[in-house]
Amino acid sequence: MISKQQVQYIAHLARIHLNEDQTERFTKDLESILDYIGKLEKVDVSQISPTSHVLSLKNVYRQDDITPSLSQKEATAMAVAKQDGNFKVPLIIE
Questions:
Q1: What is the domain extent for residue 13?
Q2: pLDDT in tens, 40-86
Q3: Contact (Cβ atoms closer than 8 angstroms) between residue 79 and residue 87
Q4: Is 32 within the bounds of a domain?
Q5: Is residue 28 domain-resident?
Q6: pLDDT one-digit tens code per residue, 11-50
Q7: Within a domain: residue 88?
Q8: CA distance 48 to 92
Q9: How would you label 77-94 residue by residue, b for 16+ Cβ within 10 Å and e otherwise?
Q10: What's the helix, strand, coil split of the chain in %, to 5?
C-alpha cells in the first residue's frame, strides 16, 4: 500500500507540485500499478527463454546495386560557387 505521504515525497524528489486532488489520484494510480506488478511477480516464467525483442528481427537492408551516377562536372554544373571541381561554400566555423 502506498501512502499520500510517499506520493508527495516522490513528487518532491521529481520537483513536481501536486495539489490534493492530484495527490489522491496519483496515489490510486500508483497503487494499481504496484498491484499489477504484484500479479506479474506470481507468474511462472521458468520455462520461458529470455528475449531481447518480442518480434523476430530480420535484415531489412537491400542489396547494393551499382548504378550510373552524375559525373563531377554534371553535379557541380548548377552550383552557385565552385572551386577546383568542388562546391564552394562560405566558412561557418572560425
A1: 4-41
A2: 999 998 998 888 788 877 887 888 889 999 998 899 998 999 999 89
A3: yes
A4: yes
A5: yes
A6: 999 999 999 999 999 999 999 999 999 999 999 989 988 8
A7: no
A8: 56
A9: eeeeeeeeeeeeeeeeee
A10: 40, 5, 55
CA distance 75 to 69: 9
* Total residues found in the chain within this entry: 94
User: Over the chain, what HEC string results?
Assistant: CCCHHHHHHHHHHCCCCCCHHHHHHHHHHHHHHHHHHHHHHCCCCCCCCCCCCCCCCCCCCCCCCCCCCCCHHHHCCCCCCEECCEECCCCCCC
Q: Which amino acid is at 39?
A: K
The three cell numbers locating residue 39: 500479479
Beta strands in the chain, from DSSP E residues, in sequence order:
82-83, 86-87
Residue 23 has a CB neighbour count (10 Å cut-off) of 15
- At CA 83, angle to CA 77 and CA 87, rounded to 5? 55
Q: What is the pTM of this model?
A: 0.49
**Which residue type is seen at 69?**
S
